[in-house]
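Changelog-adjacent note: as of this version, every example in the card shows the full chain rather than a window. The one below runs 213 residues end to end.
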Amino acid sequence: MYLVAHYNRIAEKSEEAYDSIDPHLAEYFFIEDEKNLVTQGNSMLYHASPADTVYRIQPGKGMEAAYILDMGKNKAPQTFYSNHFKDIMEFVETANKHDYVFELPTLAANDSLIAIGCMKQGQLYITLHASRSEKTVTFSAFQDDFHFSAPLPLDNQNIPFCLDNEFLYLIITAEQLTDWQKEGDRKELMNEWMKQQHINEYSNPILMKCRLK
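Full-length structure tokens:
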């Protein structure tokens, strides 16, 4: 039996089990803490694959559906998950061949927003859903208002990401910055900034702090 459980670290015991995972699907999916479980206020959000539902977990109150994701024509039919694949690679290759959405690369949340990472044909999209106003914004690039004028396209190097109040944190690579350096009409400012920060194509990834507007 595969379970998602609430573990009390102080008491060193599992206090409550919430979701049983189909042993067949467990052959093709994995529980990854940095992707599947995030806190939101006094509760926790959890999603499992196939990922069309995000659940809210409250210790002592159980688990309930918090968000239902509309995958549209890219939603895999239930019969797809009942197939017996040779291994995880055959599963992924088959899903990609049909453009099926079968996982969420990243899930993040704060008290008022939930952010979901989505991949389609190699392009990363981030969808922000405001839980109070029910408004949704989806983007595939972000704009720096201080140094650079060219939008920075997102790719799979920018996941995972996280939310903290009005800020979105994500990792960008030095390669992305050097590519970005060649775009837009502020090359001199960009060059000067990178020199000041001692950034070149061999630098380590950089944590980017973005204010949400």
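Structural remarks: The helical segments are 33-36, 78-81, 88-97, 174-181, 187-196.
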